[in-house]
Amino acid sequence: MSEISESTVPDLVLRGGRVIDPESGRDEIADVAIANGSVVALGTGLAPAALELDAAGHVVTAGFIDLHSHVNGIAGLRLQALDGVTTALELEAGVTPVAAAYERASRDGRPVNFGFAASWALARMEAVAGIRLDGRLEVFLANIATSAWQQQATAAQVATVLSRLSADLADGALGIGILVGYAPGCDPGEYLQVAALAAAAGVPTFTHARDMIEMVPGARIDGAEEIVRAADETGARMHYCHLNSTSQRHVDRVLDLVGRAQQAGSLVTTEAYPYGSGMTGIGAAFLAPERLAERGMTPRSLTYVPTGEQVASADRLRELRATDPGGLVIIRLLDEDDPDDRRLLLSSLTFPGAMVASDAMPLTWSGPAPDPMSWPLRADAVTHPRTAGTFSRALRTLARRDGPLGLTETLRRCSLLPAQLLQGHVPAMRRKGRLQPGCDADIVVFDPDTVTDQATYLASTRPSSGIRHVLVNGTPVVREGELVLDALPGKPVRASAS
Ligand SMILES: [Zn+2]
User: Fold this and answer.
1) How far is the CA of 242 from the centre of ligand 1 (A)?
2) How far is the CA of 46 from the centre of ligand 1 (A)?
3) Which of 109, 193, 247, 431 is the most buried (most CB within 10 A)?
């Protein structure tokens, strides 16, 4: 039992929950006292506070840190908060210039903490294709099909890309997002230069891998080999994003490669999301009609989200790619109903040290976008179910009594490991991902027996259930299972100037 110091009167006490902290190994029934946005005490019988929230029969642990969220609006981030997320970071695509992204999010307010990596793809769009940037991912989606930015760059253009990324790092970017899989014409040497820049700056990279060599035998380099090679040759910390979706049916081969690289001392980490289908802009290079066979797909493997239509033919796919290149599509990659595919998905999630990350996608509205604060969501809002359900689904499938990971290990992958990946150069991360005195009061309280995702491919914005309270910097964002409608306590997470 610990005491609150005389001078600290807590603002809030979470009463009588099962406190789990994977770092310290704590797993016991305790109260949690919070003051000024931080955890100030853990123990039994703590004195009453102004606000008391019951946590009996529930798990109380650090809120989930999502390394891979493309959501940059209040409505989508609320869905993530209802899934237990307290920090949502845009690291895989990144945004450039990051200063504009931080400024916009700070001005509008966010229900959860937020942060951004520098975007290699956007820096390249600017340097190679002359596209104007504004610090929003929408610029990437709008130009996703423009072949000009996907080609081999000149040495001078690469130098311009690197200096743009350096400027973003000086502005507090959390790392460098490298969507190399969207620019098949990029020279592997350029990828190594970006990794070397990250290594010199002491920041990680986050890669959407190129095609697997089995899919495109004539590719310049295998997508998985490229990532581990960069870690080995440059010493950079290389994070392998959504290993499940880019590896597809080659998960075993890729995990074996990553495991060997890790054993050899390379700084390679992985993440996965618990869904068989992916989502991206329909204009992506790898979704060209003539290339679908590489992934064992046909146009009918794609569902165009704005209308919900299964794409009927190559001609219809060409038409959609021309008229709405950034329009989101659901891509059936692994079949969740097929036992072999389910095993591959599970392997990517249970691989030692693999983190849970959602790849949450922006909401798409078939009508005009509503006021950002309006809630509940209008019925025409659609996204990928992973936006609303990744973490609850991970708890349901990995952590339940007979789940393959168990509760503490699943929580470690949802909060502590993401914090540890970033904490070397992001001081705020040393106070997140843990539930200990002195840490930020980013906390999720959930029922371990009933927590579950509710979003499906057909009802993609249905919030998770079983998440009872979510605190961000000590402020309830979800209380008794309901969203707190005026709560926007999210703070920017930035790297320290090196
Ligand atoms: Zn991706």
Assistant:
1) 7
2) 45
3) 247
pTM over 0.85: yes
Q: What's residue 2's pLDDT?
A: 45
What residue ranges of the chain have pLDDT lower than 70? 1-8, 497-498
Ligand 1 centroid–CA 440 distance in Å is 29
Supply 428's token pair: 């705020």
| pLDDT attached to residue 401 | 82
| Contact of 280 with 250, CB cutoff 8 Å | no
Q: How far is ligand 1, taken at its centre, from the CA of residue 245, in Å? A: 8
Pairing of strands 309-310, 302-304: antiparallel
Q: Are 125 and 139 in contact (CB under 8 A)?
A: yes
Residue 482's pLDDT is what? 98
For residue 76, how far is its CA from the centre of ligand 1 (angstroms)? Answer: 18
How far does residue 403's CA lie from ligand 1's centre (Å)?
Answer: 27
For residue 359, report the distance from its CA to the centre of ligand 1, in Å.
7
CB 133 within 8 A of CB 99: no
In whole angstroms, what separates CA 365 from the centre of its chain?
A: 21
Whole-angstrom Cα distance, residue 230 to residue 420? 21
Amino acid at 399: A
Phi/psi at 89 (5° precision): -115, 135
- Residues, CB-to-ion distance under 5 Å, ligand 1: 208
| Distance from the alpha carbon of residue 92 to the mean position of ligand 1, in angstroms | 7
Nearest CA to 490 among 118, 189, 105? Answer: 105
Cα of 241 from ligand 1 centre, angstroms: 7
Instruction: Give pLDDT, residue 3.
Output: 44
Check if the beta carbon of residue 145 is closer than 8 Å to that of residue 134.
no
pLDDT at 366: 85
Q: List the structure tokens of 49.
A: 């506070």
State the distance from the centre of ligand 1 to the C-alpha of 374, rounded, in angstroms: 29
CA 332 to ligand 1 center in whole angstroms: 14
- Cα 304 off chain centre by: 22
Question: 9 C-alpha vs ligand 1 centroid, how far in Å?
Answer: 45
What are 226-268's pLDDT values in tens digits?
999 999 999 999 999 999 999 999 999 999 999 999 999 999 9
For residues 47 and 29, the answer to whether their CB atoms sit within 8 Å is no
